[in-house]
Amino acid sequence: MTTTLNNGITMSLTGLGVWRMEEKLIKNVILNAIKIGYRHFDCAAKYQNEAEVGEALAEAFDTGLVKREDIFITIKLWNFDHRHVLEACKDSLKKLQLDYLDLYLVHYPIVTKHTGIGKTASVRDEDGVLDIDSTISLETTWQSGMLWKICFQWDCNYSVPLIGECLAYAKVKPAVNQIETHPYFQCDSIIKFCRKHGICVTAHTSQGGATANVDGSVSFLEDPVLKKLADKYKKTVAQIVLCWNIHRNMVVIPKSSKIERLQENFSVFDFELTEKDMVDIMSVDWKLRCNQPAKSWDIFV
Ligand SMILES: NC(=O)c1ccc[n+]([C@@H]2O[C@H](COP(=O)([O-])OP(=O)(O)OC[C@H]3O[C@@H](n4cnc5c(N)ncnc54)[C@H](OP(=O)(O)O)[C@@H]3O)[C@@H](O)[C@H]2O)c1
User: Where is this site: Lowers pKa of active site Tyr (predicted)?
Assistant: First the structure.
């Protein structure tokens, strides 16, 4: 199943996120994902595994498993490369062994001090404060013709007015906004706002990210309301959550290094939630964000 972005390009509704994927597993996971049917991979310079992803993709193309044009690759520009978009983009392409990307996202709406292409640290000044030094030059890169599409990403705490501001100055309308959203952090207003402006929303951290399956963490995978729905449909909570996001017209990119979970996360199109189920899920929106980089950056994003 695919969605068509505001630039006419189609993107699979179910992708595979590769953040925190164990390097030695990447090739096997990606090749198996392609065999299962995944055609959309969510990558980023910050994940520091572009080379491993590139090796897997090269093997998939060389062995005829899939053609480049049938795969959708997302890459993200890290915070301190905003003034070095072309170099950063070329660096990612080289590591991925690709000659074009399908989607280039600004990873976060903040810009930190540049310390070299391909490096992804967030450097603080001597006073311990994170430095911030420029504005986005992604549009210039797009004009160079190297990117097929240009898309901006905002995180959830980026306010709706700020998106409005970006829409006012962007010559190329943003096509995708990738945000954390799951039943405990539903973000309905930002999703509705994006939809109103023709911006597709992708859900990251849809399984709770680092808190998924961790004893003692608050995880919606154990939520009684969601478990009840899982029993009703004879599905797992993870599948209920993915189906719920797709029902909200979202794209999902759950990460898993387990082949059986790749299959599970891809098998979410053979049932549909009712409006009553959607209302029930609405009741568990605890506004609980799992991925909060501000904690380590001391910057509210
Ligand atoms: N734009 C951004 O700022 C941003 C931020 C965060 C993430 N992302 C993107 O979004 C992707 C997904 O987010 P994420 O990786 O943080 O977290 P996630 O997809 O919410 O959760 C991944 C965790 O859930 C487990 N899991 C996956 N499927 C499962 C299932 N069916 N049942 C039970 N557990 C399951 C995985 O374990 P196993 O691997 O052991 O299966 C892993 O521990 C990332 O890989 C990245 O591409 C983007």
Answer: 76
